[in-house]
Fold this sequence. Notes:
Elements: H1 5-15, E1 18-23, E2 32-35, H2 50-71, H3 78-91, H4 93-97, H5 100-106, H6 110-115, E3 122-123, E4 126-127, H7 129-143
Antiparallel strand pairs: 1-2, 3-4
Amino acid sequence: MITSQKGIDLIKQFEGLELKAYPDPATGGKPWTIGYGHTEDVKQGDKISELEAEEFLKDDLKLFEAEVSRLVKVSINQNQFDALVSFAFNLGSNALKGSTLLKRLNEGNFHSAADQFTRWVYANNKFMQGLYNRRQAERELFLS
Length: 144
């Protein structure tokens, strides 16, 4: 499965587009980020075009699509897949791998899994409204 346009739009909405490299504020400045949350080989002073940002996103999504496909052991629909890819893209595959969300999902308890999204709303032990908004949107997509 690959991320649908609906899933890509969700990721873009919450990642935002930055054409100049910036330090990640949620992690104290590292890694440097550009485009729609792209971090690989990004350094201070880098600049890209909107087209390059799109390409980076498509390439980055491949890793998370493969990880979600590998980790999920039950049949899921496109919206569920998209929500999980967004979650993993934002938090990393290891967060999904060790999560109660994945455990409940693989048990076939979809509603309990959906309720786990909003537990992931902290950065550096601080509640982040932006993360809450993203997790709510992912949860709603997952349940649709």
